[in-house]
Amino acid sequence: MGVSDRFLEKGVIVATVGQGKRQREVQKARYSEKDITLCPLIVIIDASSASGSEIVAAALKENDRALTIGDRSFGKGTVQQLIDLADGSALKLTVAKYLTPLYRDIQTLGITPDVNLVPVVLGKENILLEKGTAGALREADMRGHLHGEVNPPEPPLVSLKYLAALEEIPEGEEESVYKQKDLSKDNQLQIALELIKNTASTTREQMLKDLWPSFEKIRQAEEEKIIKALADLGIDWRYGKDTKTPKPVASLALQPLKEKWTAGETVNVTLTVENQGEGALYRMYGIIESKNLLLDKLEFPLGRIDKGTSKSYTHKIELPKNSLDRSDEFTIKFTELNGNVPKDVYGTLTVEALPRPEFAFSYQITEANTEGRRPDDDGLVQKGELLDLLVTVRNIGKGASSKNVVAVRNLSQKEVFVEEGSKELGELAPGEEKTARLRFLVKEALEAKEFSMDLVITDLNFGVYLSQKLTFSVMAPKVSPSVVEVDKRIQAVRPTWVFGGRSTESPVMCQIKKGSIVRVNGWVPGWYRMGLPGGGRGWIPATDVSETSVEKEEVLALHLQYMPPVIEFEKTPLLLPSSRMTLSGSARDDQMVKHLFVMVNNEKAFFKSPKKGEKVKELAFSAEVPLKEGPNTITIVARDDAGLSYAQTFVVSSKPALAKGSGVETP
Q1: What is the dihedral of CA 32, 34, 38, 39, to 10 degrees?
Q2: CA distance 493 to 540
Q3: Could you give the strand order of the β-sheet that contains 618-626, starting from the edge strand earlier in sequence?
């Protein structure tokens, strides 16, 4: 408010409205002798301008005080209130929306500049003549955003292209043209300085009139820069018109040549235009239209093509390693300076997902063996203890996990302090398991008899994760009996469990069959202790075993306490000429499948669970789900009775027009 007021003598700065468009408050400028009103003013905005900066830009623009240049702003126009809750968390509640002085909605629409500045990016790997900052992230792109008015943003009064500084544009980050560390290379700032030198007016309306010649001068200067920069890249982008008639013929090649490509591969998309006519082609240009954002708006600037010659342009598309199974059609459309364009070119890119990792885990508690402190060594949670949480993770999927994290956070009690809350496991091949050691302190002041933690195991490359709430019982502080170190073998007289602590309430770590012999390394009355894979300790009830002198022992594998269900289903075509599809398959679990559902584009389209009271380990399903035209993200989710879930996701593209007999064909 203060920034806007400094440049205004009067007028509305911003209005806020609550539910039902009920006006709540109007903020107006107040006259002051310190107001800055006798100089021309230009405000630069872009997709990074949000909230307060949008209020300033709108106030100065709509009060006829400043000319705005740059790009449409972010579109954050909500008033939010932070409410503290009793458990220490907070709730952020949206209570109103901001409106501009002309009572226009800011939310999701943003502020449109008077002069739209479009960067032309000419890199060795990618050329953007038309895209500009179309890929910049705004409020409307955020999941769950609050919608503004349905009307589209107002168009700018002037649009100017400029050549972006090449060395400042990181690969794949076109929107970073906004942010130049060296202000002498900040194109938008330099254009603003050039404009403001050519006007002395203090009103937006008069500045626009003053600057029309300057707009044309900048347009011509930037055009010359772009033509020269393209020439350095081997593209003749000069104007021209031939008296004879050209004949462009376009062709497309995807290399390496195959029916489908694997995620992580590089695909070379090459467009070639041959001129089979007598006259020359000028500013020949192709651009892809596709529902797949990886392909959409890829540009093919070919420039001048003389008779009997051809020009090609290649895009190297690096398929992300986490790409889903999908097949996308795309169309290349053309423009040419004199309207001589070839027929549209069609293509299909089919991607096969890499095998993904999936996780199962076991856990146990051990006392942290820190310097100067002797742990109780009983695997139980007591007040005042510094504890290690050992999480053994097994990759039960078909793909390797190379970048992963095991993390834990306290959910319930502030007296439980997490000292080491995350660890990386490193490379984890299918079938391989590794153990992460996390650490937390249970303070003496804890009064609760139990507390909960949220454990998450994540693969950062594929976005695969497993989450589980762990609840720990808290015992009163007590003196545990000292463990007698031994080196013995014991034999199970009946099937028995190996527990993570000296209590049958502790997590089960392994199972010993009747007659099996194992080596133990410690004893206290009623319990034997043994070592476990991953550095943990196991406790065996003494009543279930007897000591033996037989020199034979069994190596036990850890019992997976938490294993998610598995989904198997019949593969479907990834391109369908219909508005519905059928999915059939089953979900299996080692204990019980609680339910299964299918999501289509984040909306639940199918749900199935066992009959009430029925406990099934395998749940079959057959679901007919709706599809919208274009790509549809399909996710099949199964959940077991422990709350663990497993998901399979892929993309199906629908073209219902074919089913209606439209005659549209795509090679």
Answers
A1: -130
A2: 12
A3: 566-569, 580-588, 618-626
Nearest to 317 by CA among 294, 285, 291, 345: 294
283 pairs with which residues across the strands?
Answer: none
pLDDT in tens, 609-661: 999 889 999 999 999 999 999 999 999 999 999 889 999 999 999 985 433 33
Distances in Å between the alpha carbon of 330 and those of 133, 179, 326, 350, 665? 21, 32, 13, 11, 12
Least Cα distance to 179 among 41, 47, 3, 42 occurs for 47
* Residue 90 bridge partners (DSSP): 84
Spatial separation of the C-alpha atoms in residues 167 and 240, rounded to whole Å: 31
The full length of the chain comes to 667
- Helix H or strand E encompassing 567: strand 566-569
Find the mean pLDDT for residues 388-402: 94
pLDDT at 179 over 60: no
Average pLDDT over residues 16-32: 79
Q: Flag whether the pTM goes above 0.70.
A: yes
**Element (H or E) spanning 213, and its range?**
helix 204-232
What is d(CA 525, CA 528) in angstroms, rounded to the nearest whole number? 8
CA quadruple 37, 41, 47, 49: dihedral, nearest 10: -30
- Alpha carbon 196 to its chain centroid, in Å, reads 41
DSSP 3-state of 56: helix
**CA neighbor of 589 nearest in space, from 636, 635, 641:** 641
- For 218, other C-beta atoms within 10 Å of its C-beta total 21
Cis peptide before 101 (omega within 30 of 0): no
pLDDT at residue 87, as a whole number: 62
* CB-CB neighbours of 414 under 10 Å: 12
3-state helix, strand, coil split of the chain in percent (to 5) is: 10, 45, 45
Q: What pLDDT digit, counting tens, does each position of 589-609 carry?
A: 999 999 999 999 989 999 999
Strand partners, 161: 118
Measured N-to-C along each axis, helices 187-196 and 204-232 cross at an angle, to the nearest 10 degrees, of 130
- Written as six digits, the tokens of 293 are 């954002």
478 has a pLDDT exceeding 80: no
Residue with tokens 């949220």, as numbered in its chain: 454
Q: Assign 556 to helix, strand or coil.
A: coil
What pLDDT, on a 0 to 100 scale, did the predictor assign at position 137? 62
Closest CA to 298 of 130, 161, 466, 424: 130
Residue 402 near residue 462 (C-beta atoms within 8 A): no
DSSP secondary structure letter of residue 6: H
